[in-house]
Design goal:
alpha/beta, Fumarate Reductase Iron-sulfur Protein, Chain B, domain 2, FAD/NAD(P)-binding domain, 3 domains, 34% helix, glutamate biosynthesis, amino-acid biosynthesis, DPD_II
C-alpha cells in the first residue's frame, strides 16, 4: 500500500463525463479527455491491499488488481502495464465496456464506495499505449501447427492472440467486412471509439495473426472444408440469435431488432453510410428491454435526433443500495445505475411518459398498433407486479413509430450452417455443448465465449478466449504454458 490510510482520507472520484449538451452532438467517447490521469493516482491509493482480495474472485480474468493499484499509486506505469497485461489481453476494452464486477467484490465496498478499479485499469491501458509499453510480441519460433478461429469478438481475438504468441499459425474468420464482432458494429462509438480496436488489431497483425473478413464459415467456405485445412478450429461466434417478442402487431413495419439498428449507426460513424436507413431522427422511439443493449440504442437514438425515446424494463426499479439478504457482498448486485445514455435522456427529457431517465420500469408490452399503411404508430403496455403479472387497470398507450427490441440472445445463430455442417451437439439452452476442456463432439473443434457459455460479459469472453487457447495448445502439443483463468463450468459469484 502506497498510502495505508488512503481509503479513509480520499473519497471516490470517477472519470468526469463531458456535458450532456456537448456530447450528444457527436459520437466521441463520453468522458472528458485527459481528466482521468490527474485523479487516478489518489484513487488507486484507496486500495487496501487486502489479505484476501475478493476483487480477484469477482473478475473471471483473475486480474492482479491490488498489485497494479499500488504500482499506479507509485507512478510505476510500466510495471503496472506488465501486471495488467499478464491477465488481460485487452484492458482498453474492458476498462471502457465492462460493468466492473470487480468493484462489487471490492472489500472496501462492504461499507464504503468501492475503489474505481475500472478507471484505474483504463488509465493503465491508455498510458501503456502512449508510452509504448505494449509492442507486438511475435513468437520466437513457429510450431508448424495451424488454427482457425471463427469469430472476431473478444473471445476470438483473445484466443487468436494467445495461440499466435504460443507459436501457432492462426487465421481469424469474420463474416462482417471488418474485424471486431460486437465491439465493431454493436457497441456505439460513444462508449468505445473504434481507434481503440484498430490499435490492438495492428498489434495482432504485427505478431502474425491473420484475418479473413467477409467470410461466413458454413456459407462462403464449408465448415468441414475448413476443419480439414487446419489442425484445430475454435468457434467463437457469440450468441447472436436474438429473442423475439410474440405480441399482436409484431408484423408491423418499423419494429426492428436492436442488432439491426445499432450496426447501421456504427456504419455511419465508419463512413460507410451518410444516414442510417433506420435513423431515429424525428421519430418517437420505444426500446423494449432494460439491459445494456437497450441503453446503447437509447444513446444512439438521442444522437440521431429522435423526437422522443422511451425504454421499457420489465423489472421493477431497483433500489440505490445493495439488498444484503438477496445479493450479499461480494456478488454483483442489481441496483439502480445511471449510464451515460440514461443521464443524457434524463437531462434532455426525451421520454415524457417516464419519471426520470427515459426508463419505464415494471412495464410489459401488450401489443403494437399501426396505421392504414401497416406501419407501427403506438405501443400499448401494462404495469406488472413482482411475478410479471399484469396489474389490472394499468394499461396505457405511448406513441411509437420506431420500436427497437433489445431482449437479449438465446444462443449461436445457425443460419450460416456452421453448427449443422460440423454436426455439433447443443446443450439444453441451445448453446454449443463442450467438455471440461472446451472440446466439442467434433474432433479438433473447440467452442468458447457466448456461443457455448451463453450471453455474458466481456471479461468472461476474454477469459474464455484465454482458457480455450490453453486447451487448444495442449491438444496440439501435448502440454501448455498458457494461462487458463476459467473452466467451462465456472459461473459468476451468486447466492
Amino acid at each position: 500500500m502506497a498510502d495505508p490510510k488512503g481509503f479513509m482520507t480520499t473519497p471516490r472520484q470517477e472519470w468526469a463525463r463531458r456535458p450532456v449538451e456537448e456530447r450528444v452532438r457527436d459520437w466521441d467517447e463520453v468522458y472528458v479527455p485527459g481528466a482521468l490521469l490527474p485523479i487516478i493516482g489518489k484513487q488507486a491509493d484507496r486500495c487496501m491491499d487486502c489479505g484476501v482480495p475478493f476483487c480477484h474472485e469477482a473478475c473471471p480474468l483473475g486480474n492482479l488488481i491490488p498489485e497494479w493499484n499500488d504500482l499506479v499509486a507509485r507512478e510505476d506505469w510500466r510495471a503496472a502495464s506488465d501486471r495488467l497485461h499478464a491477465t488481460n489481453n485487452f484492458p482498453e476494452f474492458t476498462g471502457r465496456l465492462c460493468p466492473a464486477p470487480c468493484e462489487a467484490g471490492c472489500v472496501l465496498a462492504i461499507n464504503q464506495p468501492a475503489v474505481t478499479i475500472k478507471n484505474v485499469e483504463c488509465a493503465i491501458a491508455d498510458r501503456a499505449w502512449e508510452e509504448g509499453f505494449v509492442p507486438p510480441r511475435p513468437p520466437e519460433r513457429l510450431s508448424g501447427k495451424t488454427v482457425a478461429v471463427i469469430g472476431s469478438g473478444p473471445t476470438g481475438l483473445a484466443a487468436a492472440q494467445q495461440l499466435t504468441r504460443a507459436g501457432h499459425t492462426v487465421a481469424v474468420y469474420e463474416k462482417d467486412d471488418r474485424i471486431g464482432g460486437l465491439m465493431r458494429y454493436g457497441i456505439p462509438a460513444f462508449k468505445m471509439e473504434k481507434r481503440q480496436l484498430e490499435r490492438r488489431l495492428g498489434q495482432m497483425r504485427a505478431e502474425g495473426t491473420r484475418f479473413r473478413t467477409s467470410t461466413a464459415v458454413g456459407r462462403d467456405v464449408g465448415a468441414a472444408e475448413l476443419r480439414a485445412r487446419y489442425d484445430a478450429v475454435v468457434i467463437a461466434t457469440g450468441a447472436t440469435a436474438w429473442r423475439e417478442l410474440p405480441v399482436p402487431g409484431r408484423e408491423l413495419a418499423g419494429i426492428h431488432q436492436a442488432m439491426r439498428y445499432l450496426p447501421l449507426a456504427n456504419r455511419v460513424c465508419e463512413g460507410d453510410l451518410a444516414v442510417s436507413p433506420l435513423s431515429a431522427a424525428g421519430r418517437h422511439v420505444v426500446i423494449v428491454g432494460g439491459g445494456d443493449t437497450g441503453a446503447d440504442c437509447l444513446g444512439t437514438a438521442v444522437r440521431e435526433g429522435a423526437a422522443s425515446v422511451t425504454q421499457l424494463d420489465i423489472y421493477a426499479q431497483p433500489g440505490a443500495e445493495r439488498d444484503e439478504y438477496a445479493e450479499p457482498w461480494p456478488t454483483y448486485p442489481k441496483i439502480y445505475r445511471l449510464s451515460a445514455a440514461h443521464e443524457e435522456a434524463g437531462q434532455l427529457r426525451t421520454a415524457p411518459a417516464a419519471d426520470a431517465d427515459a426508463r419505464l420500469f415494471a412495464a410489459s408490452t401488450l401489443r403494437f398498433t399501426g396505421d392504414d399503411g401497416g406501419r407501427v404508430r403506438a405501443l400499448e403496455l401494462v404495469e406488472v407486479d413482482e411475478r410479471r403479472q399484469p396489474v389490472p387497470g394499468s394499461e396505457r398507450t405511448i406513441p411509437a413509430d420506431l420500436v427497437l427490441l433489445a431482449l437479449g440472445f438465446s444462443g449461436p445463430d445457425r443460419e450460416d450452417g456452421l453448427i449443422d455442417q460440423l454436426g455439433l451437439a447443443l446443450d439444453a439452452r441451445g448453446t454449443i455443448a463442450r467438455d471440461d476442456g472446451f472440446a466439442t463432439n467434433a474432433p479438433g473443434v473447440f467452442a468458447a465465449g457466448d456461443a457455448a457459455r451463453g450471453q455474458s460479459l466481456i471479461v468472461w469472453a476474454i477469459a474464455e478466449g484465454r482458457a480455450v487457447a490453453a486447451a487448444v495448445d495442449r491438444y496440439l502439443t501435448g502440454t501448455s504454458r498458457l494461462p487458463a483463468p476459467v473452466s467451462p463450468g465456472d459461473r459468476p459469484m451468486r447466492v
